């Protein structure tokens, strides 16, 4: 191969890698912009189907929908924290659970331990919901400076 082709190939590969980094950064910016930490998750009640009171099934359905909304909010918060901390150069975090006795065994075991963002534990980062049986993890990462 001639040196000119090698240089052109190198420039193309370099430009492609820069484009991928730019695209990743733009996606991360969208995640951070779309997440509002101070926003309160409102409990949405459905209208009763027949009459003045909701049935037990309707209440259970509303509670399940609210819990799923809280879990999604927790996952978004965890992802936004990961992005913010990695941009600040923070490489490690302390796993924190809500410590109310309602967390799963894996969350209770990881509470207070230090992990790296680049090497997550087998259960995933806090808030991802991989370790909890119902997928509703309420843990959060605390930056370790």
Automatic annotation (TrEMBL):
The chain crosses the membrane at residues 6-22. It comes from the Bacteria. Residues 115-134 are annotated as: Disordered. Residues 125-134 have a biased composition (Basic and acidic residues). Keywords: Membrane, Transmembrane, Transmembrane helix. This is Phage head morphogenesis domain-containing protein. It comes from Escherichia coli.
């Amino acid at each position: 191969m001639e040196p000119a082709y090698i240089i052109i190939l190198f420039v193309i590969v370099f430009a492609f890698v820069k484009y991928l980094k730019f695209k990743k950064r733009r996606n991360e910016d969208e995640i951070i912009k779309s997440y509002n930490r101070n926003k309160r998750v409102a409990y949405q009640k459905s209208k009763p189907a027949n009459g003045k009171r909701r049935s037990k099934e309707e209440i259970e359905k509303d509670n399940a929908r609210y819990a799923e909304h809280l879990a999604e909010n927790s996952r978004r918060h965890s992802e936004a924290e990961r992005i913010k901390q990695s941009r600040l150069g923070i490489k490690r975090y302390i796993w924190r659970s809500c410590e109310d006795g309602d967390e799963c065994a894996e969350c209770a075991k990881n509470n207070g331990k230090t992990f790296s963002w680049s090497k997550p534990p087998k259960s995933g980062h806090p808030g991802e919901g991989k370790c909890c049986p119902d997928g509703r993890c309420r843990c959060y990462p605390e930056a370790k400076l």
